[in-house]
Fold this sequence. Notes:
Radius of gyration: 33 Å
Shape: rod-shaped
Low-confidence stretches: none
Structural class: alpha/beta
Oligomer: single chain
Helix content: 25-40%
Number of domains: 2
Largest sheet: 5 strands, mixed, barrel
Number of helices: 5
Distance between the termini: 28 Å
Strand order of the largest sheet: 2-3-4-6-5
Order of helices and strands: HHEEEEHEHEH
Amino acid sequence: MWSVARRPRWIAALVFALLLAAVFAALSQWQLARSVSTGTVVSRDTEAVVALDSIAKPQTSTTDAAAAQLVRVTGAWVPDDYLLVSDRVNGGRTGYWVVGHFAAQVNGGSPAGLTVALGWAQNRSDATSVLRGLSGSQASGSVTVSGRYFPDEGPQDGDFEHGKLSTLSAGSMINLWKVADPAGVYSGYLVDSAHPSGLALIDSPAPDTSVELNLLNVFYAAEWVVFAGFALFLWYRLVKDAWEREQEEAQSAETAEVN
């Protein structure tokens, strides 16, 4: 068989198959590199407490650099502007958040609205009781609140018209808050690092910085390796077929001479 493989036509075909296999191998390597790069987490210090207005501005979307950052902000609670948010999971259990309207000072100017999640309760009645208590007792003077800042969750699809609130979005808050904010609102919300009596602390862990491979890219990389192997196998199969065909023709010729 290898005598057939040494012919110029099949040597050229082998060179072409090797080049094709090299291209497929390069594509496989590129896919593997993509699987790592797309899973890379940009390292940033989310645990250093910074001023909110240094990473976020009212009326602008929350950036990746601001998401899950520990922040502090000074301002005042807006009286009687507290809401319940349902379907909130805390420690594996579903319950309610009590959410407050915080008028945050922005560089010494007019206050901007900030949604602050104060705490969690498993039962609606418990959450409602705390909400009513806060409406009557929350400090009206200037206070500083700290916690983890998260991006807007977007509008909800459910029972918003019937008073059920299950997501936190700036648009929803504007429609529900009783007092308008002169400087607009922050698109994200703050999970308070403290909690009022009667509520549990809301889980707000640091963001996961572990790197996960993109399995789809790994699958594509394996496919390119298979294609590279198939290119070489196809050359081998064609050479073998040509050799077997020549052997059959030679045997047929010998049989014809004998007869």
